[in-house]
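W.,

You were right to be curious about this one. When I first looked at the sequence I had no strong expectations either way, so I just let the prediction run and decided to look at it fresh. Below is the sequence, 374 residues in total, followed by the output.
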Amino acid sequence: MATVKIRITLQLVLLAYFVGLHPHSLQGQDLLHLARQVTGGPSLHPSKYPQLAKQARELEQQTSQQTAESKTDVLESKGVYDYQEHSPFSAEQWAVLETSESQQPVNRQCVIDPSDPTSSVCHILFDWGWQSLADNQGDLLSFKINPIVPLRLCGQTFLLDIAAPVQSHADLTGLGGFSGLGDTRWKTSWVIPSRRRFLRSIAPTMEAIAPTGDAARGLGGGQWVWMPNTLFALQPSRNLSIYPTLRYLQADNLATDLVPELPCLPAANGGVFGTSDIRAFHTEIPFVFHLQNAGLDWVGVTPDLFQNLKSDGTSTFSMKYDAGIQLTNSCYCIMEAWHPVSSGTSNDFTFNVKLDYYPSRLRPRKLFRKFGLR
């Protein structure tokens, strides 16, 4: 326990040097951000602030007696290079930190938030989906395994997300039913934390759908879909999170009716096997409401707008609703439903049930650090 406290204290002092705080009063938001950066999440009990502050102050006095060379060695061991001397905490700053108000301990379970697309905890989604195509053209059933793996590279956090449909069944008008591999969706996100009041992080993302399914049998769109986008994680209040996403889509000769990953796509001319070129902007704004003392842990409402930039200028508007509930310490159940508001969409209704599993709850954290995972 003592070793853990010393390590956390050392990280707190090193971070203070690294960010280069100058002699001015620390704001409460700065203190909270500093504590969360040290612990990797909102798991530090605010009641421990005074104790950590006193230990950090004593450690700073000891560190000030060391040579500059020894300081550089310690910082480089923590992954901080090109160190330059900054002003230490002033007496006023230490006083603010040491006298911060004690609060009730925060439950460590708040680190895991299945409703947060920028969550840096390793987990796996098992997804069962049903999509009813427009104009009674048939149904698409799918089962996907979707691992989401965080990686720490050069001090930055990246999320690797792959949705692989290991089984897909199409029951389409004039074709019948087929089973097989569907299209695979993958994305890589760079999560950039923010110190602004309502902005938690920004996540530039490269996302694509690979045509791994057989389009001739109704198991995929038949073409690559490229979707660079940027996500903003906003926290306007304690129980409300907003995740607006701005996305650009590009594809040629895509069978839009056969891409279950994108229910917002417009229906192509020529029926279920009709194709169209996509050059479009796509905006979705999930509003997530965190509930307390309720049957559900959260509910979400997502307006979804698609605007094609091609000559036809097709646009669609859909709504998505989702809800989640914790089943065990490591499993959550998520339900999603999509329905079009405007006409011209490729689907009439989409419903997904997901089982969100967090293996990090059952395995030692050292195993994940060994492979660079949080």
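Here's what jumped out at me. Residues 2-19 form the longest helix (18 residues). And, maybe more interesting for your project: The longest strand covers residues 156-172.

Coffee later to discuss?

I.
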